[in-house]
Design goal:
Quinone Oxidoreductase, Chain A, domain 1; alpha/beta; 6-stranded parallel beta sheet; 337 residues; 18 strands; Rossmann fold; 7-stranded mixed beta sheet
Length: 337
Amino acid sequence: MKAAYYTGNQHFEVKEATPEALQPGFVRLKVAYCGVCGTDVHIYHGKMDQRVRMPQVIGHEVAGKIAELGPDVTGWRVGDRVAVRPLQPGADDPSDNEQRHIGKNLKFIGIDTAGGMQSYWNVPAYTLHRLPESLPLHLGALIEPLAVACHDVRLGRLQAGENAVVIGGGPIGVLIALVARQTGANVLLSEPNPNRLALCASLGLSAVNPLETDLVKAVETVTNGAMADVVFEVSGVAAGVQVMTQLPRARGRIVMVAIHSEPKPVDLFRFFWRELQLIGARVYEPEDFDEAIRLAASGDLPLDALITQISPLEAVQSVFETIDNNPAGMKYLLQCD
């Protein structure tokens, strides 16, 4: 089998590898597609070398078929089509409050352990979610990021008829906008990249360029002064944090989706003055995967339009270089079989 190893210094090496022995409770997947996540790009840039044990196979946005069952695995058969929920909860900690998906000892499969950029991948059977036959496997590789969007919208308690603003039009931001629209909400997206704005227009999403349009005034206009019920901060930049508190109505909700690795100034006075709520949203839970699969299988989301490029596993190095040189790109998939 072939596997792509991250070796540090923005370099991958694709080479032959021997499948690991199957442990009890694990299955061996024949990986069909593995998506490239923003986290993978951070790894490529060396920003997570303290967590990744090089050389290591990374990647966690995976769809494939079960090739072999390990001991003690029930409820699955060879040939079943699946997506992977790449979370490995560790020992419970009193501070976890029974939220095992964000537990103190959680390991993220594909970062803290070997990932899916390989022909065959051993994963715990409890991470699997069954994919319907009607869903192509390349779209199955989008279930993980779509589950992120479903989780964010669910935690934001967004309802039909409410007004939502999404700050940031990258892959997750667009997926959040699409899921929010499916709830029946009115959605406005903010994104400065003109190519991504064009994509949003092609998807029927209302979007504005905050470098050319005052976002606060735009929200006032489209909501007739009511402002947003829910704001999703997905940009990860200081400007997004600065404007997010100006957009909600009284007792509105702000969902923090982006990873802000460094502290940024936040207008706490607005939280007091308008009784706002700030909601952190990280990864997903099983029900979010189930909802993502339901939405993907329904055909109601234009997921194919989000795929910028599909490349063979052997091209992994050039794919990451392309991502660096094409900030307007959306989802890049590696075909691993």
